[in-house]
């Protein structure tokens, strides 16, 4: 008699718009509050347990980190889905940490992203593919070679302390092994509480590369530093999104997709929506005999406070 094996539950996070890609790059990129809300609800219906959210100026598509810019779509998403809301504290890499933390401070989401170290951000590689832009700001944004995404120890502590009373837990964005050691420091200081949701980011210019050896090295380092205190997820940028998702899912990882991080559905084919990427992630997970975690299962795994606590 074969003993019953329960399939591992895999958390899919969908990051629907972000602050890296610009409207001219893809008609699928959500810009207006209605588009962001619809993308998040559709992604949740396709299997995303968590939706990671940025806001944009509805006319120009420029990143907008004002709390007011988040309100319209947060209300809709809360009404129309049970998805875990994950608000960015990253905003756009050129913003100050005071600006960046405000939406999460106001709305007290179950999850907020937290970037675990300073680094260069270079989006200029996209100029090889995207040559014409509707809005003046887009080209300047993409060709900027002078971006330092500032996340000093003081900045990280500021976000942790600003959000500590809200019950918000974190998606720790780790773009290189140094960021894992930084997270270990905050764990040792008692400023972060397990289970640590570690989002390892691959293939973004300025962070660790997308090679399988890079993925293994981040996994191995996180295991050595955090043992059973962390839950591993992967974010592959651009064309690396699904291959890295497949590799990690086969090794116990969780998956982040979404047009914030990649505009692609397959080599040379752009995604028609965030939900399409979620469906592709679901196929990988179920193809391995694993199951897609529901939002409530993700809440249990990550010790979250419950969706009705969103202050909107
Ligand atoms: N853009 C992703 C690579 C944040 O919003 O805080 C990481 C991210 C950062 O989502
Ligand atoms: Zn983000």
Automatic annotation (TrEMBL):
Its cofactor is Zn(2+). Pfam families: BKACE. It comes from the Bacteria. Keywords: Metal-binding, Transferase, Zinc. PANTHER family: 3-KETO-5-AMINOHEXANOATE CLEAVAGE ENZYME, 3-KETO-5-AMINOHEXANOATE CLEAVAGE ENZYME-RELATED. This is 3-keto-5-aminohexanoate cleavage protein.
């Amino acid at each position: 008699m074969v003993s019953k094996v329960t399939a591992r539950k895999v958390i899919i996070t969908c990051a629907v718009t972000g602050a890296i890609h610009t409207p001219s790059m893809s008609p699928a990129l959500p810009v207006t509050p209605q588009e962001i809300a619809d993308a998040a609800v559709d992604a949740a219906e396709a299997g995303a347990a968590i939706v990671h959210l940025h806001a944009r100026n509805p006319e120009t598509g420029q990143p907008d980190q004002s709390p007011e810019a988040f309100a319209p779509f947060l209300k809709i998403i809360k009404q129309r889905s049970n998805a875990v809301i994950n608000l960015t504290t990253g905003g756009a890499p050129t913003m100050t940490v005071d600006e960046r933390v405000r939406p999460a401070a106001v709305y007290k989401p179950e999850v907020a992203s937290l970037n675990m170290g300073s680094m260069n951000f270079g989006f200029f590689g996209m100029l090889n593919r995207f040559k014409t832009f509707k809005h003046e700001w887009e080209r300047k944004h993409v060709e900027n070679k002078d971006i330092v995404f500032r996340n000093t120890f003081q900045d990280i502590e500021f976000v942790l302390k600003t959000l500590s009373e809200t019950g918000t837990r974190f998606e720790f964005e780790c773009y290189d092994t140094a960021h894992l050691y930084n997270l270990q420091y905050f764990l040792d200081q008692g400023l972060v509480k397990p289970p640590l949701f570690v989002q390892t980011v691959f293939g973004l210019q300025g962070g660790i590369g997308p090679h399988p050896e890079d993925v293994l090295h981040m996994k191995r380092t996180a295991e050595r530093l955090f043992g059973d205190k962390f839950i591993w997820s992967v974010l592959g940028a651009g064309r690396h999104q699904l291959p890295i998702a497949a590799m990690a899912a086969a090794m116990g990882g969780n998956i982040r997709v979404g047009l914030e991080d990649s505009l692609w559905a397959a080599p040379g084919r752009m995604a028609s929506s965030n939900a399409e990427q979620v469906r592709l992630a679901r196929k990988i997970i179920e193809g391995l005999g694993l199951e897609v975690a529901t939002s409530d299962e993700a809440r249990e795994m990550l010790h979250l406070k419950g969706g009705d606590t969103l202050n909107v």
